[in-house]
Amino acid sequence: MERRKFVALLGGAAVAWPLAARAQHVAQRVRLVGALLPTNANDPEYPALLAAFEQVLRQSGWAEPDNLRVEMRWAGADIDAISKKAAELVVLSPDVILAAGSAAAGPMIRATRSIPIVFTIVPDPVGAGFVESLAHPGGNATGFASFEYGIAAKWVELLKDLEPNLTRVAVLRDPAITAGIGQFEAIQSVARSAGVTVRPINMRDQSGITRDIDGFAGNGGGGLIITSSGMSVVHRDLIIALAVRNKLPAVYYASSFATRGGLMSYGSNRTDEFRRAAGYVDRILKGEKPADLPVQTPTKYELVINLKTAKALGLTMPASLLAIADDVIE
């Protein structure tokens, strides 16, 4: 009787060990994360953003090459190139895809309605049709909105605080994305009460941006507002240089512009957005669905002022602005 019990126990163990081994193998299989980035691989801002993203993944237990592989696709700001790169990622069948900005999120969502997508740096995910609502995304995409359109009033206010006699504002936008149109309309809605007229400058290529900013500056009394888009990232250094050359006070939507020589920026902390996006990627890899993860908005906006650029423009930064700045670049 004892021998039969031993043989039965041994047989059960023989079955249990392969099952345990298979379970461990499944748990340790390498998961694939895709990333679609609407800029160039040499963009100076993205190393820090991606480092923050990967750091949170490591803290959550995901690390290359042990159980994670990340496939990145850099696509610049060309819509055809972005769509092509989005299709390439779909063919790879990743477990989840990170899409940075509206210019990447739109083509990525159109390319697949089944692979989970986490977007970041998107101004208006509901207006763009990426999600049904912030609280209930409803599809295969969710993520982090970079701001609400109401922030446009602050951009106008900052320029008027700096230059009370300002009468004209050129708004650089990408008309190919919903956010480009929406941000311009939000600025228009507050411009009259601020005593300024606004003119859109549609960003398409280097020569057109140069021609339009130079032409706008020629009439004097003007300032610039640069709205959120992949196009503005690709042409970041050109836009900053044109603003300085033409002595135009400018406010940008992201701190990367101020650190690269722009006068001032007011917007969300993009590094924090990438950290939070990694948290959503982790939750999806562990089984949660994008439809169940609400789109989140920034908890804080940051004002960054570049005093070196102010001096180059011949401007004296008001003490009231310096007092509320989160970062002042000397």
Straight-line N-to-C gap: 87 Å
CATH classification, class level of the largest domain = Alpha Beta
Strand order of the largest sheet: 7-6-8-9-10-11-12
What is the number of helices? 13
Largest sheet: 7 strands, mixed
**Helical amount:** 40-55%
Radius of gyration computed on alpha carbons: 24 Å
How many E strands?
12
Topology, element by element:
Elements: H1 2-27, E1 31-37, H2 46-59, E2 68-74, H3 79-92, E3 96-100, H4 102-111, E4 117-122, E5 141-145, H5 151-162, E6 168-173, H6 178-194, E7 197-202, H7 206-217, E8 222-226, H8 230-234, H9 236-245, E9 250-252, H10 255-259, E10 264-268, H11 270-285, E11 301-306, H12 307-312, H13 319-324, E12 327-329
Parallel strand pairs: 1-2, 1-3, 3-4, 4-5, 6-7, 6-8, 8-9, 9-10, 11-12
Antiparallel strand pairs: 10-11
Helix pairs in contact: 2-11, 3-4, 5-6, 7-9
Overview of the structural elements:
The chain is of the alpha/beta class. It folds into two domains: 26-146 and 270-298, Rossmann fold (3-Layer(aba) Sandwich), CATH 3.40.50; 151-268 and 302-329, Rossmann fold. It contains 13 helices and twelve strands. It has helices at 2-27, 46-59, 79-92, 102-111, 151-162, 178-194, 206-217, 230-234, 236-245, 255-259, 270-285, 307-312, 319-324, and strands at residues 31-37, 68-74, 96-100, 117-122, 141-145, 168-173, 197-202, 222-226, 250-252, 264-268, 301-306, 327-329. The strands form two sheets. Strands 7-6-8-9-10-11-12 form a seven-stranded mixed sheet, with helices on both faces. Strands 2-1-3-4-5 form a five-stranded parallel sheet, sandwiched between helices. Helix 2 runs parallel beside helix 11, helix 3 packs across helix 4 (102-111) and helix 7 runs parallel beside helix 9 (236-245). The longest helix has 26 residues, at 2-27. The chain is elongated, with a radius of gyration of 24 Å. Mean pLDDT is 90; it is low at 1-17 and 19-26.
